[in-house]
Design goal:
By secondary structure, the chain is α+β, with helices and mostly antiparallel strands. Helix content is 48%, strand content 9%. It contains 41 helices and 27 strands. The strands form seven sheets. Strands 3, 4, 7, 12, 13, 14, 16 and 17 form an eight-stranded mixed sheet that branches. Strands 2-5-15-8-9-10-11 form a seven-stranded antiparallel sheet, with no helix packed on it. Strands 20-21-22 form a three-stranded antiparallel sheet. A hairpin with a 4-residue loop joins β12 and β13. Its main location: cytoplasm. InterPro entries: B30.2/SPRY, B30.2/SPRY_sf, ConA-like_dom_sf, RNF123/RKP/RSPRY1, SPRY_dom, SPRY_RNF123, TPR_RNF123/RKP, Znf_RING. This is E3 ubiquitin-protein ligase RNF123. Keywords: Cytoplasm, Metal-binding, Methylation, Phosphoprotein, Transferase, Ubl conjugation, Ubl conjugation pathway, Zinc, Zinc-finger.
Length: 1329
C-alpha cells in the first residue's frame, strides 16, 4: 500500500527498516519472556486460570493468531440472523421499494431514506411484527405534512389516503399535531426538521405509542386489532418534497426504550468482538516496553506516539487483522469507534491537545486496506453528520460542540481530509449540515428558559406603528426587564459563537493550500467540489436530494466568508503589496476568459454565445483573447439546434462557456445538453499574452477542462500563465489581488447569496414581525381591560384570557427571536453581508471600466448588490443600525452611482435586471439617507441620470420612472406633504416600512438638474411632456372605463362580484393618473416657460393639451351625480386609495401655478387657453372650495340611495339601508372642500386658490361679454369648438390651430384630402364687403 499520508504515517513495507535505523537500542524485537509478558498484558484471558506470570504458557507472535481467535470466540452470542419470535421478514430491514408503495417516491441507495414526489405517497418496510414489543426511529428531515406509524398488509393507500386513513393503520402527524386512525384527534407536539420520532408497538397489550426526541407523547392507540393473520409493518405517507430517514436497527437507536426491541437485530457477535479488539488496542496504547529494565510501564494513552517499534506494530497488525473488516459496518463504527474517539476528546481543551486521534488515523492508513479505511472514514463522517444534525439543542450546545470537535480532529489528518474532500464533501450534500445551527421550535426543550429567564418585547410604538428604539417614557421595571433580556441574549450569543468558531476551523482546514506533499492541496479539491455544488443548486432542474436547503446555505455562507477572509488576510500579511480582504473584489477577466464556468446563469449583455460573436473584436483588442472561428461556428449551430428542439427560452448560456465546463450530473442529461457537452469538450480558445508592450503577441492554446480536471496550475497559473486572471484588460491595475483560488471562492459566495440566502433572510424576519404584532395586540388588550366597566365581568374574563394567551406567545417568541438574532441577524452577520455588498460594488466598478466587456459580467452581481443593501436596511435593522457600519456613507454613494448609471445602460439587455435596477433606484430616492447619497454622486452622473429619466415614456416601462420623479417632488407640491392620504389615516398600513409610506424628502438639487435640462433642450422637453400627457390621457381614460364597469355591476339588483384583480388595476390607473399630474405640476413649477413662452415651438400646443386634460379630469371628478362619487362611496376593498383629495389637489397645484404665480403675459395666455377649451366649466373650479355644488348633492344622494353595494371577488355585500347611504352620499358630496383639510393645505395655499377662482370668474364673465356669436361656417370643422385660425399649404384646407398642431405630431397628411402638408399659415376671415 502506498503512503500518501502526512505526519508519521508509515508504509507496511518500510516500518521495520525505519525503526531499526532510528532507534536501534530501544525498539528492536524484545526477548521471548518480555514479549510473552507484553502479549499476555495486551490480550488478557477472560477465563479464570493461573494468574502468576511464571505459570502462564509462553506466548509469541507465531502463537498469537490462534490465541486471538480463541479469545474472540469466547462468550460469542448466537448468530445475529436467527429468527426472533414475533417478527416476519428478511434482515436487514429496509423500505419495500418493489411492491410496498403507492405514488411516486425517491428512495435512497441504502433503502432507508425517502422523499415524496407526488401528492401523498406511501411506503412500508419489508418486515412485519405480530407479537412482542418493537420500535423503530424516523429522522425528520423536513417538517411538512407526513403521517408515520404502522399498517397491515391489507391496507390500501392512494394519493389522498395514507397511513392512518384506513381501519388497520395508525399514524402520528407532527405537522398538524394529530393522531390518525380513520378519524383524527389532537395528539403530541409539533415536530421540526432535525427531530427523531420513535414509533413503539406493544402487541402483548395492544397499544401504540410515539416519542419525540426520547420524550414519550403518551399512548396514542389502545386495543389495536390483533390475532391470527394480523401483522404490522412500519409505514409512512408523505406529501411532495417531504423527506425522512428510517432507522430500523441498522444503526444504534438514538433513544432506545426499555423492553422494546429494534426491528433489525443488532450485530451482537460482531459488537462483542469489536469491543474486545478495541480493549486490546487501548492496552497497546497504555503500555510501554522498557527494554533496558525489561519491564512493562503503564502510561497515559493520550501521549502515545507511533514511533515504529516492531513489537508494537506487529501486535497492532494482528489486532487490525480482525478489527479492520468490522470497521466497515455502520453499526460498529457508530457504536464502537465513534464513541471511543469522542471519549478521547471528552477531557476538554483544544483539539490540538489531543494528538492521539492523529496517531490512530495514521495507524488506520498503515494497517488497513485502502477500501477498508475509505469505508470506515465514510461511515464515521456520516455518523457524525447524523449525530450533529439530530442532537437535541441544549443551552450550552454541548452535543453539537462535541461532534464538531471530533470532525475537526479527523480533518486535521491530511490524508483523511483529502480522501473525505474528494469522496464525501459536497458529493454527499448533507455535509453542509456541519455548518448549520438549527433553530429550536420548542423553546422549553432547548433550555432557552434557563438561559433567558426574563423575556421582553417592545411596548412603545410611534404613530406609524413602528417600535421606538429608545422610548422616553420607559418605566424602571421595563428598563430592568429589557436589560435582563439583553444579558440573556448575550449569554446565548457567546455559546453559539463557540460552535461557529469550530465550524470556521473546519473550513480553514478544507481551505489549506500548503498540504501539497501528498498530491493536490486541499483547497483546490474543495474549490472544484464547491463549484459543482453551486452548479447543482443553480440549476433548478436539480434532483430534490441534491438541492441544499436555504437555511443551511445561510449558515454556510457566513462561515465561508469568515474562513475566506481569514485566509485572504493571512496572504496579505505575507505580501503587503496585495489587496486586503477589506478591499476584495472579483477581477473582470473571470467573466470572459472561460476559466470559471457560470453554468446557465445570465450575463448582463445576454447569452454568452451572442456576446462572443458580437464582442470578439473587443476581446482581441482589449484583453488579447482570440475566439477560435470554429468555436463561433459550433456555437451558432448549437444555438440553431437549441431553437429547433426546445425553444430559445430553454437554451443554456452555460453550454457555450469558453472554459471550466462542469460535467453535468446524469439526471441533467438530455440530447440538447449532450450536444453542448460535446461542444465543450472540443472548444478551444486562443489567448495572446503580451510579454513586452511592443513585441508581437504570442498565441497560447488553452484546453477547456471540466471542473473536476482542473489542477492548481490551471487556477493559480505559473511562469507567465495568469491562471484564472488570463486576459487582463488595460484598465485593470497590474497588481496582485490575492490567491486566485480565493477569488473564485468569493465569486461562489456571491452566487450562493443570490441562489437562496437572500430569500431565507427575508423569511426569518417573520418572527420579528410576529413579536411586533402580538405586542401591539397585548397592549391593545391591556388598554381594553383598563377601560372595561366593572359591571361587565364576562367581557373582562374574555379579555384576561386573551391577555394570557398573548403574553405566553410573546414569552415563547421573544426567546426564539433571541436565538434568530444571535444566529442570523447578529452584528457580525450584518458585517458579513455588508462586506459582500462592498465586494459586489467594487467588482461592478472594475467591470464597468472595461467598456463593452462589461456585458460579460454575470447578472447576479447587480442582483446581490441591490438585495444585500435591501437586507441590511430591512432585515437587520433596527436591532443593528446601518449607520454604525464602517464607511457606510461612501458605500451608499457608490451604490447610488451604480444604480444611477446602469438603470439605462445600453450594455445591459435583460428586462428583469433592468426592472430590478429601476425599482432599486425608486426605493433609494424614498429614504432621506439614500437620497442624499444620490445627491453626492458626481454632477456629470447626476445630470446623465436625470436625462435618462426624462426620456420619452413610450417604448419603455415608464411607471417606475414617473414614480422616481414624483418622489423627488413630493414635499414641494400643492398640498403634497402627506405620508398617507387623509381618508386612510385611521386604517393601519400593511407595512409601515414600504417605500411609498416614507415621509416626503424632496431633492431640490435633482429638481434643479431637471429644470436645466428641460429649459435648455427644447426638443427633449417637448417629447417628454407629450409622452407624459399621452400616458395621462390613457391612464385616466382607463380608470373612468373601469369605474363605469364597477358602477354597472353595483346597480344590478342581483348579488354581484367584482374581480379583485380588476379593482387592483383600477386603483393602479388612478394612482398613475395622480402621479402623472404631479410630474406635470413639477414641470410647470420648475420650467413654466415650456407652456407659457410661446416663442418655443411646442409651447402653445402643450398648453392646450394640458388645459384639455385638466378640464376633463375636473369635470369627471366634480360633476353632478357623478360616477366618481358613487364608486368612492362604495368603499370597496382594493380601491382604498381612490379619493377626491389626491387627484383634485394635484390638478389645483397645476392651475394655481399657471394662473396665479406666473407673470402677467403667461397668466393671460393660460387663462385664455383654459377658457377657450370647450370642456371648461367654472363650477368645477368652485367645487374645490365647496362652492356651487350643493344643488346637485340631493339628487346624487337620491341616486345613490337605491344602489346595491358590491364586494370584491369571493364576497358580496347586501345593499345598504337607503337612508344611511343617502346620508353618507350627501355628506361626502357636501363636505368636500379644500377648507376641510387644514392639516394638509396651508392658509397661503387656500388663499391662492381663492385668488384663482376670483380671477377665472372675472375672466369668464369678460369672455362671455366680448365673444360675438360665431356662425357655424366659421367654426373649425374638426372640433367645432374654436374658430378657424389656420390654413394648410399647399391644399388650402382650414381648421383651428389646436387641431392641426396636434394632428401634425403624428401625421403629415391633410385631414381632408390626404395631401402632404408642407406648411401651416395663420388665417383670419376677410372682412365682408
Amino acid at each position: 500500500m502506498s503512503s500518501k499520508g502526512g505526519g508519521t504515517a508509515l508504509t507496511r513495507r518500510n516500518y521495520r527498516l525505519a525503526s531499526d535505523m532510528d532507534k536501534p537500542r530501544s525498539t528492536g524485537i524484545v526477548n521471548e519472556k518480555m514479549l510473552s509478558d507484553y502479549l499476555h498484558h495486551v490480550f488478557p484471558s477472560t477465563k479464570q486460570g493461573p494468574t502468576l506470570a511464571s505459570l502462564r504458557k509462553p506466548l509469541g507472535f507465531q502463537d498469537l493468531p490462534a490465541h486471538l481467535e480463541k479469545l474472540l470466540s469466547e462468550d460469542t452470542p448466537t448468530e445475529d440472523g436467527q429468527a426472533v419470535d414475533g417478527r416476519l421478514g428478511p434482515q436487514p430491514v429496509v423500505l419495500d421499494h418493489t411492491s410496498g408503495f403507492e405514488g411516486l417516491l425517491f428512495v435512497d441507495d441504502d433503502l432507508l431514506g425517502v422523499i415524496g414526489h407526488s401528492n401523498f405517497s406511501s411506503i412500508r418496510a419489508t418486515t412485519c411484527v405480530y407479537k412482542g414489543k418493537w420500535a423503530y426511529e424516523v429522522l425528520i428531515s423536513s417538517q411538512g405534512l407526513m403521517q408515520i406509524g404502522w399498517c397491515t398488509l391489507s391496507c390500501r393507500f392512494n394519493q389522498e389516503e395514507g397511513v392512518g386513513d384506513t381501519p388497520d393503520s395508525y399514524a402520528y402527524d407532527g405537522n398538524r399535531v394529530r393522531k390518525w386512525n380513520v378519524t383524527t384527534t389532537n395528539y403530541g407536539k409539533s415536530w421540526a426538521a432535525g427531530d427523531i420520532v420513535s414509533c413503539l408497538i406493544d402487541l402483548d397489550e395492544g397499544t401504540i405509542t410515539f416519542c419525540l426526541n426520547g420524550q414519550s407523547l403518551g399512548t396514542a392507540f389502545t386495543n389495536i386489532k390483533m390475532g391470527p393473520g394480523i401483522a404490522y409493518f412500519p409505514a409512512i405517507s408523505l406529501s411532495f418534497k417531504e423527506s425522512v430517514a428510517f432507522n430500523f436497527g441498522s444503526r444504534p437507536l438514538r433513544y432506545p426504550v426499555d423492553g422494546y426491541l429494534p426491528l433489525q437485530n443488532p450485530p451482537a457477535a460482531d459488537l462483542m468482538k469489536a469491543h474486545k479488539l478495541l480493549g486490546y488496542i487501548k492496552n497497546v496504547l497504555s503500555t510501554a516496553i522498557d527494554a533496558q529494565e525489561e519491564r512493562l510501564v503503564e502510561k497515559d494513552c493520550a501521549v502515545w506516539r507511533l514511533h515504529g517499534e516492531p513489537t508494537v506494530l506487529v501486535t497492532l497488525a494482528h489486532i487490525f487483522n480482525h478489527f479492520a473488516p468490522l470497521m466497515c459496518k455502520v453499526y460498529l463504527v457508530e457504536d464502537v469507534l465513534m464513541n471511543f474517539l469522542l471519549g478521547i476528546l471528552e477531557g476538554g481543551g483544544s483539539v490540538d491537545e489531543h494528538p492521539l486521534i492523529q496517531q490512530l488515523l495514521d495507524l488506520f492508513w498503515l494497517l488497513m486496506e485502502d477500501h477498508e479505511v475509505n469505508e470506515c472514514l465514510k461511515q464515521l463522517m456520516m455518523s457524525l453528520l447524523r449525530a450533529y444534525r439530530f442532537s437535541p439543542i441544549i443551552p450550552d450546545l454541548g452535543f453539537q460542540i462535541h461532534y464538531l470537535r471530533l470532525t475537526t480532529a479527523i480533518l486535521r489528518h491530511e490524508k483523511s481530509r483529502k480522501y473525505l474532500l474528494s469522496n464525501l464533501t459536497f458529493d454527499v450534500l448533507r455535509s453542509v449540515v456541519f455548518f448549520y445551527i438549527k433553530t429550536p421550535l420548542r423553546v422549553k426543550e432547548a433550555g432557552l428558559e434557563e438561559l433567558i429567564p426574563t423575556t421582553w418585547w417592545p411596548t412603545h410604538f410611534d404613530k406609524e406603528g413602528k417600535d421606538e428604539r429608545e422610548p422616553k417614557d420607559e418605566s424602571a421595571d421595563e428598563r430592568l426587564r429589557r436589560r435582563a433580556y439583553e444579558r440573556g441574549c448575550q449569554r446565548l450569543k457567546k455559546r453559539i459563537e463557540v460552535v461557529e468558531e469550530l465550524q470556521v476551523q473546519i473550513l480553514r482546514l478544507l481551505l489549506n493550500n500548503k498540504d501539497k506533499s501528498t498530491g493536490e492541496a486541499s483547497r483546490y479539491i474543495f474549490l472544484n467540489k464547491f463549484r459543482k455544488f453551486l452548479q447543482e443548486n443553480a440549476s433548478n432542474r436539480g434532483h430534490p436530494t441534491a438541492l441544499c436547503p436555504p437555511e443551511y446555505m445561510v449558515c454556510f455562507l457566513h462561515r465561508l466568508i469568515t474562513a475566506v477572509r481569514g485566509c485572504w488576510d493571512e496572504g496579505h500579511r505575507k505580501s503587503p503589496s496585495s489587496v486586503s480582504s477589506d478591499e476584495a473584489y472579483v477581477p473582470p477577466q473571470l467573466f470572459y476568459n472561460g476559466k470559471v464556468d457560470y453554468f446557465d446563469l445570465q450575463r448582463l449583455g445576454g447569452l454568452l454565445s451572442h456576446l462572443k460573436k458580437t464582442l470578439k473584436d473587443d476581446l482581441a483588442s482589449k484583453a488579447n483573447i482570440i475566439i477560435d472561428p470554429a468555436e463561433i461556428q459550433a456555437t451558432s449551430m448549437d444555438d440553431l439546434d437549441e431553437d429547433d428542439e426546445s425553444g430559445a427560452a430553454q437554451r443554456l448560456p452555460g453550454a457555450v462557456a469558453m472554459g471550466g465546463a462542469l460535467a453535468r450530473p446524469s439526471w441533467l442529461s438530455s440530447p440538447t445538453l449532450g450536444r453542448a457537452n460535446r461542444f465543450l469538450s472540443t472548444a478551444a480558445v486562443s489567448l495572446m499574452t503580451p510579454r513586452r508592450p511592443l513585441s508581437q503577441p504570442e498565441k497560447v492554446k488553452v484546453r477547456t477542462l471540466a471542473v473536476e480536471q482542473r489542477t492548481e496550475e490551471d487556477i493559480e497559473g505559473s511562469h507567465g500563465n495568469d491562471g484564472l486572471l488570463l486576459g487582463r484588460p488595460l484598465e485593470e491595475p497590474d497588481q496582485q489581488i490575492a490567491d486566485k483560488s480565493l477569488l473564485e471562492i468569493v465569486d461562489g459566495i456571491v452566487m450562493m447569496y443570490n441562489l437562496s440566502v437572500h430569500q431565507q433572510l427575508g423569511k426569518m424576519v417573520v418572527v420579528s414581525d410576529d413579536v411586533h404584532e402580538y405586542a401591539v395586540a397585548l397592549k391593545d388588550t391591556e388598554e381594553k381591560i383598563a377601560r372595561c366597566p366593572a359591571s361587565r365581568a364576562d367581557i373582562l374574563e374574555e379579555l384576561q384570557k386573551s391577555q394570557k394567551v398573548f403574553a405566553e406567545k410573546l414569552n415563547h417568541l421573544s426567546r426564539r427571536l433571541a436565538w434568530i438574532n444571535a444566529t442570523i441577524y447578529s452584528k457580525e452577520k450584518m458585517l458579513d453581508i455588508y462586506w459582500l455588498l462592498c465586494v459586489c460594488i467594487r467588482t461592478i466598478e472594475h467591470a464597468d471600466n472595461t467598456g463593452s466587456l462589461f456585458a460579460f459580467t454575470s447578472e447576479f452581481y447587480l442582483n446581490v448588490a441591490m438585495n444585500a443593501y435591501s437586507a441590511l436596511k430591512n432585515y437587520f435593522s433596527p436591532a443593528n443600525g446601518m449607520d454604525e457600519l464602517p464607511g457606510y456613507e461612501e458605500t451608499l454613494t457608490q451604490l447610488a452611482a451604480i444604480l444611477a448609471k446602469h438603470f439605462a445602460d445600453p450594455r445591459i439587455v435583460g428586462t428583469d435586471i433592468k426592472d430590478s435596477l429601476m425599482q432599486a433606484l425608486a426605493s433609494y430616492v424614498c429614504y432621506p439617507q439614500s437620497l442624499r447619497a444620490v445627491e453626492r454622486i458626481p454632477e456629470e452622473q447626476r445630470v446623465a441620470m436625470m436625462k435618462n429619466l426624462l426620456a420619452p415614456y413610450e417604448q419603455r416601462p415608464w411607471a417606475q420612472t414617473n414614480w422616481i420623479l414624483v418622489r423627488l417632488w413630493r414635499g414641494c407640491g400643492f398640498g403634497y406633504r402627506y405620508t398617507r392620504l387623509p381618508h386612510l389615516l385611521k386604517t393601519k398600513p400593511e407595512d409601515a416600512n414600504l417605500p411609498s409610506l416614507q415621509k416626503p424628502c424632496p431633492s431640490l438639487l435633482l429638481q434643479r438638474h431637471m429644470a436645466e435640462l428641460l429649459s435648455m433642450d427644447k426638443d427633449m422637453a417637448a417629447s417628454f411632456l407629450n409622452s407624459v400627457l399621452n400616458q395621462l390621457n390613457w391612464a385616466f381614460s382607463e380608470f373612468i372605463g373601469m369605474i363605469q364597469e364597477i358602477q354597472q355591476a353595483a346597480e344590478r339588483p342581483e348579488r354581484n362580484f367584482v374581480d379583485t384583480r380588476q379593482l387592483k388595476v383600477c386603483a393602479t390607473c388612478f394612482d398613475l393618473s395622480v402621479s402623472l399630474l404631479r410630474v406635470l405640476e413639477m414641470t410647470v413649477t420648475l420650467v413654466p416657460e415650456i407652456f407659457l413662452d410661446w416663442s418655443r415651438p411646442s409651447a402653445e400646443l402643450l398648453l392646450r393639451r394640458l388645459a384639455q386634460l385638466l378640464n376633463q379630469v375636473l369635470n369627471r371628478v366634480t360633476a353632478e351625480k357623478n360616477l366618481f362619487d358613487r364608486v368612492v362611496n362604495l368603499r370597496l376593498p382594493g380601491l382604498e386609495s381612490v379619493d377626491h383629495y389626491p387627484i383634485l389637489v394635484a390638478v389645483t397645484g397645476i392651475l394655481v401655478r399657471i394662473l396665479v404665480d406666473g407673470d402677467r403675459q403667461g397668466v393671460s395666455r393660460a387663462a385664455s387657453v383654459l377658457l377657450s377649451d370647450p370642456c371648461f366649466q367654472l363650477h368645477s373650479i368652485q367645487h374645490l372650495l365647496g362652492e356651487g355644488g350643493e344643488s346637485s348633492s340631493s339628487s346624487a344622494a337620491v341616486a345613490s340611495s337605491v344602489r346595491p353595494a358590491v364586494g370584491s371577488l369571493g364576497s358580496s355585500v347586501a345593499a345598504p339601508v337607503p337612508s344611511a347611504a343617502g346620508n353618507s352620499g350627501s355628506s361626502e358630496r357636501k363636505h368636500f372642500s379644500l377648507h376641510a383639510y387644514t392639516d394638509y393645505i396651508s392658509e397661503e395655499e387656500k388663499h391662492r386658490v381663492e385668488l384663482m377662482l376670483a380671477f377665472l370668474t372675472e375672466e369668464s364673465k369678460q369672455a362671455a361679454a366680448s365673444t360675438a356669436p360665431t356662425s357655424e361656417e366659421d367654426l373649425c370643422p374638426i372640433c367645432y369648438a374654436h374658430p378657424i385660425s389656420a390654413i394648410f399649404k399647399p391644399c388650402s384646407h382650414k381648421s383651428c390651430k389646436a387641431c392641426i398642431n396636434q394632428h401634425l405630431m403624428n401625421n403629415k397628411d391633410c385631414f381632408f384630402c390626404k395631401a402632404t402638408i408642407t406648411g401651416v399659415e395663420d388665417y383670419s376671415k376677410p372682412a365682408s364687403s
